[in-house]
Design brief:
Layout lengths: L4 H15 L8 H15 L4 H10 L3 H9 L10 H17 L7 E6 L5 H14 L1 H7 E7 L2 H9 L1 E2 L9 H7 E4 L2 E4 L1 H4 L2 E5 L11 E6 L8 H14 E9 L12 E5 L4 E4 L21 H13 L3 E6 L4 E4 L1 H7 L23 H10 L3 E10 L2 E12 L6 E8 L1 H100 L3 E6 L4 E4 L1 H7 L3 H4 L13 H13 L5 E8 L5 E11 L9 E9 L2
Helix pairs in contact: 1-3, 2-4, 6-7
Length: about 600
């Protein structure tokens, strides 16, 4: 997130103060990618909002650490590298130890413990199980407490053990309740604890240090700091075993390669720098004139400018190179140097000459700048006392180191560029490995999601089959219901025909005295349609029939299911004609129901 530098630093500082995790040394692009995943997951848009979210939801820390600390590991991960360690590294560690001396191993960034138990199996194979229990201690450390809790259990699924050779798997693991546990008697020699490689002190006196695919998550400065601690932690003969994406191209003073391809390195013991003695050449007088001539020609032809000065500070001799460089001539021979420009240019000679003659020791004036033939040159000036006690002389040499200095500068620049290129290459490789780790983690998450989707799909198929079965049952019930509806419709039609053909008015009343049926003859007799009275109480009817005088007989029939009563009352039909009406109350009882469900009121008109 561009422009979020202060907000990101504030977030990292908050995490460090709240939970003790220091992510400031992690590579910024990788850290930003993983934080972006959590911001998207919780639905916030900025680091400040995410910091507030952490304060309100402490459980989010666990999800954050799982995302940033990618715990991708396994038994014998990168088998060729472990084979090289077993063939070269472990024998070197054992050969450097007395027979019964303890062996200490540190697995840094151990995650859920697979690499710690891998080296434990290899050491047990190398020294024997009994010696392993007596001599070996394997320390596994990480900053992820949840991963360490898994490591302490030393229990894994069968699929996690697939990369272990069958012979080792059968010897060092036991099946318990469908899972595989590292053997208890050897488990005591593998100790797990929390250690922050950036902030905590390293474990000391280590013979073999394993830190695979952990350094690549840190920036160059933090890597250098951790590697200095690793150098301190190892014994003088100790070995460092790194991951396939980690190199030590810029740490030659701390570690030297044992097997570069498999990333096995040996500790370089740090020593104090010691001065290198200077070699001085002394010459004696020639045996004859030929020797003197040869010496003169050699002095004259020397590429470096040289002067010879006596104790009285007079110029006694100079060669051709000095003549050209310092513009000296024959008249200058024998003159005091204080009268010559060379006493102070290109370097001050008077004080150093006093030191050389008094102490009879060489004096170096270092490098000085001198302009000659329109070009600046760099000269290295040195004074050497020469001659016998009777004739004390000093040689002053001016060595042109311009080309050497330019070459050294170019070489230093090339080395810096090469070092930068190595660091960029290493960073690129580590970024690629980090991306691969993230992709592998994402792939595992996708595989888990795919399994969950497959399980959900199976459940949906099962539900679909159940729904199809229920649908078939509902279809059968629907067919049966349709048949019964048709039968009921036929029965209703038959019943209506019967009621109509009787030629009397028939009304069905339930126990609440509400009208349920009102036949066509009743409609013709009283002038009220069926839909107008169905549902009304019998006593509320407003027709030519005196319903009030009949309510007692109706209730008696409802209460006494076996009583049939006949009542004769005066009534008026729908045309206003008076007549005498015979009303019969007949109890109606449904089979299986002990109570009277309804009463049928039959009416038959009589002529008044």
């Amino acid at each position: 997130m561009a422009g979020d530098g202060p907000a990101l630093r504030a977030l990292l500082e908050h995490i460090r103060e709240a939970r003790g995790f220091d992510f400031t040394g992690y590579k910024l692009p990788s850290l930003q990618r993983r934080l972006a995943k959590r911001l998207e997951a919780v639905g916030v848009d900025s680091y400040d909002d995410y910091r507030d979210f952490l304060e309100l939801h402490p459980d989010e820390y666990a999800q954050l650490f799982d995302t940033v600390l990618i715990n991708v590991t396994g038994f014998f991960r990168d088998p060729d590298a472990w084979s090289a360690l077993a063939a070269e590294g472990i024998p070197a560690v054992l050969d450097a130890h007395p027979r019964d001396a303890p062996i200490r191993v540190w697995s840094a960034g151990a995650a859920s413990g697979e690499e710690a138990f891998t080296i434990a199996m290899l050491l047990a194979e190398a020294v024997g199980e009994r010696a392993f229990r007596e001599r070996v201690k394997v320390y596994g450390t990480d900053v992820d407490d949840d991963a360490l809790d898994q490591a302490r259990l030393a229990t894994y699924d069968a699929e996690r053990l697939e990369d272990i050779p069958p012979s080792l798997r059968g010897r060092y693991f036991e099946s318990v309740s469908g899972r595989w546990c590292f053997r208890r008697e050897m488990r005591r020699n593998v100790i797990f604890g929390r250690n922050d490689l950036v902030r905590d002190a390293p474990i000391s006196r280590i013979d073999l240090l394993i830190c695979r695919n952990t350094l690549m998550y840190f920036n160059s400065e933090t890597q250098a700091q951790i590697l200095r601690r690793f150098n301190f932690a190892l014994r003088p003969t100790g070995l460092l075993f790194l991951g396939k994406s980690e190199m030590l191209l810029t740490q030659r003073t701390l570690f030297e390669p044992v097997n570069t391809k498999r990333r096995i390195f040996r500790k370089v013991t740090q020593r104090d720098e010691r001065p290198i003695p200077e070699l001085l050449a002394a010459g004696g007088a020639g045996a004859g004139q030929d020797a003197r001539d040869l010496a003169e020609r050699a002095f004259e032809a020397a590429p470096a400018a040289q002067l010879v000065i006596d104790r009285d500070r007079r110029l006694r001799l100079f060669n051709e190179a000095a003549r050209r460089l310092l513009r000296l001539g024959a008249p200058d021979i024998g003159r005091p140097i204080r009268e010559l420009e060379i006493s102070y240019r290109p370097a001050e000679l008077r004080g150093p000459l006093d030191t050389a003659f008094d102490d009879r020791s060489a004096v170096s004036l270092g490098s000085v700048s001198h302009r000659h033939d329109g070009r600046d040159r760099l000269l290295e000036v040195r004074i050497e006392p020469i001659g016998a006690d009777t004739l004390e002389l000093a040689s002053v040499s001016f060595v042109d180191i311009t080309a050497r200095q330019e070459f050294e500068q170019r070489l230093e620049l090339a080395n810096r560029e090469l070092s930068t290129a190595y660091e960029e290459l290493q960073s690129t490789v580590e970024e690629l490995e980090t991306t691969n780790e993230e992709l592998q983690s994402t792939n595992e998450e996708l595989e888990t999601t795919n399994e969950e989707l497959q399980s959900t799909n199976e459940e949906l198929e099962t539900m679909n089959e159940e729904l199809e079965s229920a649908n078939e049952e509902l279809g059968a019930i629907n067919d049966e219901l349709r048949q019964r509806t048709l039968a009921l419709d036929e029965a209703n039609v038959t019943m209506d025909a019967v009621l109509t053909s009787l030629g009397i008015g028939i009304v069905t009343v339930d126990r609440d005295e509400r009208i349920r049926q009102w036949n066509a003859h009743s409609e013709d007799l009283w002038g009220v349609r069926s839909h107008e009275v169905v549902g009304m109480r019998f006593g509320d009817l407003d027709i030519g029939l005196p319903v009030g005088a009949l309510r007692a007989g109706l209730r008696e029939s409802l209460l006494d299911g076996g009583h049939v009563s006949v009542h004769t009352v005066d009534a008026v039909d729908r045309r206003g004609r008076a007549f005498s009406c015979a009303v019969t109350f007949v109890p109606l009882q449904v089979d299986g129901d002990p109570e009277v469900a309804a009463v049928v009121l039959a009416q038959r008109a009589r002529v008044a």
